[in-house]
Write a structure and sequence with these properties.
Blueprint: E1 2-6, H1 10-21, E2 25-29, H2 33-42, E3 44-48, E4 51-55, E5 59-60, E6 71-74, H3 81-87, E7 97-100, H4 107-111, E8 120-125, E9 130-133, E10 136-139, E11 145-149, H5 156-167, E12 172-174, H6 178-199, H7 203-208, H8 210-229, H9 236-249, H10 256-262, H11 273-282, H12 288-301
Parallel strand pairs: 1-2, 1-6, 2-5, 3-10, 6-7, 7-8, 11-12
Antiparallel strand pairs: 3-4, 8-11, 9-10
Helix pairs in contact: 6-8, 6-9, 6-10, 6-12, 8-9, 11-12
Length: 311
């Protein structure tokens, strides 16, 4: 397949490089020039488990890609989705499918402004990946990719995409449960990301502190209640189990939202905690803990240069 990966961070680089290695025609698109230059000069250095590979793969800016893509995989943050898709007009045509494997809610609605619903694929992944530096990505552990057409229909193109991802070693399945999995990941991120950002604690320290541990559980429960009210069969137990595993096995991990906060970048809280609170309000539900954490992170963002105490 002719594939463009938009957002060549930790996850985009992992997926793009492995799909390139599997024999597909893949281009990584990003805005970080140092990363682009490093990949083009020496290839992408990819550590997978105990194996280190150098994968030759082109990295470009959007404007440099002119050949229509069969598949565009969106790994940008939600806040950059519409700008990325606007810049992708040069390589999206009537045959292009767009796969979103992004965090948060509202991704389909953004993509639908540029691509018909029957060309949108939604997905969720739990593969771990870290951007070590320009042109260098590390992935320790295994995972699964779940995908489904945004309208729920099983078309031949969906199987083609599943096979392409699976051939790259990124275990991929077509799942009718993908929307439940997306909401479960949103619940997990709403708890972990916002609390770590506000407290400055790592995942493990947050889990080991009774007060923040309890707040995390409350956020997860509020989120799953919203999903269930919407008719999405997301599992509260599944989220709580993921959280306990993270507390135990990812003790020193700093979630992406905390990393963005420390770097004084706009976070994804609007599309995680904020989106949950808005969905709840439309259903006449209250999500008090989730909503308060949303407001706190937004307050921190709006006062980056005025904070007396920094994490």
């Amino acid at each position: 397949m002719n594939i463009v990966v938009m957002g060549a961070g930790a996850m985009g680089s992992l997926y793009g490089a492995l799909m390139k290695e599997a024999g597909h025609d893949v281009v990584l698109v990003d805005v970080w020039q140092q990363h682009i230059d490093a990949i083009n000069a020496a290839g992408l250095k990819l550590e997978v488990g105990e194996i280190t590979k150098i994968i030759k793969i082109p990295a470009k800016r959007s404007r440099e890609v002119t050949t229509p893509a069969e598949l565009v995989i969106l790994f940008t943050k939600n806040i950059h989705s519409e700008k990325a898709l606007e810049e992708a007009r040069g390589f999206i045509d009537s045959n292009t499918c767009v796969l979103t494997v992004q965090n948060g809610l509202g991704n389909i609605e953004k993509i639908q402004k540029y691509v018909p619903l029957d060309k949108i694929i939604v997905g969720v992944t739990n593969y771990p990946s870290d951007l070590v530096g320009p042109g260098h990505v590390r992935s320790k552990g295994t995972g699964k990719t779940q995908i489904l057409s945004a309208d729920g229909k099983i078309r031949p193109q969906l199987e083609t995409i599943r096979q392409a991802i699976d051939e790259a070693g990124l275990h991929c399945v077509i799942s009718q449960d993908v929307f439940a999995a997306i909401w479960e990941k949103v619940a997990f991120n709403a708890a972990m990301n916002s609390l770590c950002t506000v407290t400055g604690l790592t995942v493990g320290l947050m889990g080991a502190t009774p007060q923040s541990h309890d707040l995390a559980i409350q956020i997860a429960k509020e989120t799953i209640a919203v999903a269930n009210k919407k008719g999405v069969p997301a599992s509260e137990d599944a989220v709580l189990n993921m959280m306990e595993d993270a507390f135990k096995n990812h003790f020193n991990h700093m979630p992406s939202m905390l990393q963005d906060f420390l770097a004084k970048r706009t976070t994804e809280v609007e599309f995680i905690n904020g989106a949950i609170a808005r969905e709840a309000a439309q259903l006449g539900m209250a999500t008090p803990v989730t909503a308060v954490l949303y407001q706190l992170v937004r307050a921190l963002e709006q006062n980056y240069d005025k904070q007396i105490i920094s994490h």
